[in-house]
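Give me structure tokens for this 204-residue protein.
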Amino acid sequence: MDAITTLAQLEALFGEVAAPSRLKEVAFISPHYRALIAASPFAMLATSGPDGLDASPRGDAPGFVAVEDEHTLLLPERRGNNRADSLRNIIADPRVALLFLIPGVGETLRVNGKARILAAPALLQRFAVAGQAPKCVVEIKVETAYFQCARAVLRSKLWDPAAAVHAAGALPSAGAILAALTRGEIDGEAYDQALPARQRSTLY
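Here you go.
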């Protein structure tokens, strides 16, 4: 297969960008984009750092990412696995990208900008849930925002209940994966048995 190595080749392959695709991109959070963020309980955060790229999920009640103003988003960092890959990257390179998803909605929202990590006690308390404040808050200064059309979601049948994987054992469990990767150093069955209670007790 011939490789596409120049912008001219790429543009010839895809053709011109349609006017709506250009005009939907703005340098601020418009009222309509604010409504999409307020409805979203899930986002993917992409970062870049000296050790490579990272894309990791963030989720909470709809609107968990706060629109401070039309140029600023606030993303609380909840408990996780303590790898802090995204945060390590932000310290080295503030460029970030967010992809917001809304269950049942085909369109997604993309936001790009520059981030910094904040830990002022009053700010953390503002985002407390069940008495538990986040570890820190990622402040994102918006540079571009635009919605993505629904084609990918429609093709994937992401929100189609008939496409959901329900059967127990249809996919390897977290414990099975860890047991295989560590050649039995981690007891997969014990890990899986303890995981639901551990997740419930450490959500926040």
